[in-house]
Amino acid sequence: QVQLVESGGGSVQSGGSLRLSCAASGYTYSTYCMGWFRQAPGKEREGVAAIDSDGGISYAVSVKGRFTISRDNAKNTLYLQIDSLKPEDTAMYYCAASAATVPTLHSEFYDYWGQGTQVTVSS
After folding, report:
1. Phi/psi zone of residue 38: left (φ > 0), alpha (ψ -120 to 50 degrees), beta?
2. Dmax over Cα atoms in the chain, in whole Å?
3. What CA–CA distances, in Å, run from 75 to 21, 25, 28, 61, 120?
4. Nearest residue to 71 (alpha-carbon basis) of 62, 63, 80
5. Radius of gyration of the CA atoms of the chain, in A
6. CA dihedral of residues 90, 59, 63, 61 (deg, nearest 10)
7. CA within 20 to 30 Å of 100's CA: 19, 31, 73, 78, which one?
8. Average pLDDT of span 25-53
9. What is the pLDDT of residues 47-97, one digit of tens each?
10. Residues 113, 3: contact at Cβ < 8 Å?
């Protein structure tokens, strides 16, 4: 069955960096669009970055220039490099897989979801 397992979250100070990973299995990873989403307490889930099977990339305006999404199809792994972390980046971060052919940030297009990894940024 499809599995997406995130790792790499943690507690960091403002200005710090983290690298999130998402290990995928149970489907043809290289053909799927992959995305990172986050949800803070009391807020709606938002898409922050996506990368399609051709390497096309989208970022949310709020993270552009600080977040970098990448994928390693040989390892079936998705990454999110997060730099210059801010307290407002505090959230649970999820990876997800979509059959979409473009790097969409809309969660309704994603079929599979991981359990999430927590990122907490202190000021």
Report:
1. beta
2. 40
3. 11, 10, 12, 29, 27
4. 80
5. 13
6. -120
7. 19
8. 96
9. 999 999 999 999 999 999 999 999 999 999 999 999 999 999 999 999 999
10. no
